Amino acid sequence: MNKPEILIIDDEPQIQKLLQISLENDGYKLLHAMTGKEGLLLAANNLPDVILLDLSLPDIHGHQLLVQLREWYSKAIIVLSVLNSEEDIVKALDNGATDYLTKPFRVRELLARIRSAIRRNTLTEDASIIEINDLEIDLIARTVKLEKELLKLTATEYNLLILFAKNEGRVLTHQQILKEIWGVGNQTETQYLRVFVAQLRKKIEQEPNQPRHIITESGVGYRFQ
Predict the structure, then answer these.
(1) Global pTM?
(2) φ, ψ at 42 (rounded to 5°)
(3) Which CATH number does the domain housing residue 155 bear?
(4) Looking at 95, 122, 149, which one is the last position of a domain?
(5) Domain ranges, residue 156
(6) pLDDT per residue over 161-187, tens digit each?
(7) 79-128 pLDDT per residue, tens
(8) What separation in angstroms does the CA of 86 have from each of 91, 99, 107, 218, 219?
(9) Sheet holding 221-224, edge to edge
(10) Which of 76, 79, 88, 152 is most exposed, with minimal Cβ within 10 Å?
């Protein structure tokens, strides 16, 4: 079985070394780039399973590089950056980042995010059933079961759940969700989104006030896990 391949685009030797030790021990094959231009070339020539991207590169800003990569690269891009403002996080996610971790990060958390990203890579568009822990979603029958019990969801709740499930483990910004579910022009209606998330949590969470599926990323959006 081929090892998943990860491209690291980061100009910090210490980070490159830390990631090399941690990821190779976990069974990944690695590619290294110290600049944005080198990273673009390696990504184009190898099409890695996951890209780990620092935003502060010596030649191209990470936000610009994200936009360039997303013109043709469809797999996971996880940002690793010291920039921790909501503005930078939301901008990166809106520009196509799959996930965002601020430095210093916990290696175990990064490994979990990578595993989640690779699982999403293998979820084919023609899959008819999505199973995540105690949830079963039948895309053909448009039914949802929780612990084998059929749930009654509204059309909007169902569409919201499908969006979350197909992006399992990924942070979705408020603007991304609103645009996808309610269309262009509704990206500022965050209160509207909160209402529907609350309704959905009541139906799929054992403890809606302490959710384990739909996790709030404060000031940014939601993560489904």
Answers:
(1) 0.75
(2) -65, -40
(3) 1.10.10.10
(4) 122
(5) 129-224
(6) 989 988 888 889 998 898 888 876 666
(7) 999 988 888 998 999 888 989 999 988 999 999 889 888 877 766 555 67
(8) 8, 13, 22, 9, 7
(9) 171-173, 221-224, 214-217
(10) 152
